[in-house]
Amino acid sequence: MCTVKHRNRPVRPFHLAAVRRKIAAMIGVGVAAALLIVGSAGVPSAAPSTLRHALHAASVQIDPPGCSGVLAENDQIVVTARHCVDPGVQKLRVRFTNGATRVGWVVATDEAADQAVLFLEDPIDIEPLPIVRRRQIPGTVLYFEGNPSRPRFQSARLDKIGRCPSLPDLPDALFTSIAGVPGDSGAPLVDVVAEVVGLVHGGARCHIATPADTLLRLVERVLERDDVHMTRARSGSHSSRVSAGHARRS
Questions:
Q1: The whole model's pTM is what?
Q2: CB proximity list for 136: less than 8 A, separation 6 or greater
Q3: Which residue from 159, 199, 161 is spatially nearest to 180, judged by alpha carbons?
Q4: What share of the chain is helix, strand, coil (3-state, %, to 5)?
Q5: Cβ-count burial of 42 within 10 angstroms (0-12 exposed, 13-18 middle, 19+ buried)?
Q6: For residues 99 and 234, is the Cβ–Cβ distance under 8 A?
Q7: Within-domain flag for 250
Q8: ω before 65 within 30° of 0 (cis)?
Q9: 2: which residues sit within 8 A by CB, 6+ positions away?
């Protein structure tokens, strides 16, 4: 067991419906609808500045090895690509775009989907991005900035959903038109209301991302686990105990 100490407060529950309403209101429902209705002519080149801000604020760089990730669902949960976590590594440094850093414990992984969940030692005062709950449709417009240390905001298209050779056990990889570079692994792709649709996996032949459904199940398993809980120390401070064991995909 790894004990993760908090300064003065427990893990805070998040009301995701309120988060979604807040982000949607900032971006504007009218703009969202207009951007979602895109024909075969191409992908729109612009996105609301509030979407770009929300995406950039929640994006992180994970050191080592310099991969990307995103604060999602909760102010102590960061998700990234599994291949960014070396075997045997239990904790990583998470760097936010506002300059803050946190230690993140590796608490769950999904080998088949190339996804990992980190639990931060201390909460961060940044709005986490919700993970999308609805099934994605080819042709959907997505947004992406890559590694936040060198952001390259771009719009992309979900071309198809299927199996990729580099993820043979994942039947619903997201094939996209993103132009990724080394260091983008784990970066989020979001929809027009800044909900996480997938995480960058990479692959020269695929340009793929791993899907939100496996990611959501992994995060929910972490948040529901008995070994992520708060205990009060004799000094009156709070601490959370996090298992170092990985939650495997069933």
A1: 0.78
A2: 158, 161, 174, 197, 211, 212
A3: 199
A4: 20, 35, 45
A5: exposed
A6: no
A7: no
A8: yes
A9: 90, 91, 105, 241, 242, 243, 244
15, 23 contact by CB (below 8 A): no
Cβ(104)–Cβ(61) under 8 Å?
A: no
Residue 126, helix vs strand vs coil: coil
C-alpha span between 68 and 206 (Å, rounded): 19
Structure tokens given for 54: 């929300």
Using CA atoms, how far residue 133 sits from 76, 88, 196, 210, in Å, is 20, 32, 9, 14
Distance CA 100, CA 124 (A): 8
The domain spanning residue 221 has which CATH number? 2.40.10.120
- pLDDT at 204 > cutoff 80: no
Residue 249 lies in a domain: no
Nearest to 209 by CA among 134, 156, 149: 156
Looking at residue 222, its amino acid is V
DSSP element (H, E) containing 154: strand 154-162
pLDDT at 16: 54
| pLDDT bracket for residue 234 (50, 70, 90) | very low
Q: Which residues contact 99 (CB under 8 A, 6 or more apart)?
A: none
Both structure tokens of 86: 């070396």
Q: How many domains in the chain?
A: 1
Asked if residues 129 and 32 have their Cβ atoms less than 8 Å apart, the reply is: no
Residue 77, amino acid: I
Q: How high does pLDDT run on average in the chain?
A: 80
Is position 248 within any domain? Answer: no
pLDDT higher than threshold 90 for residue 145: yes
Residue 57, SS3 per DSSP: helix
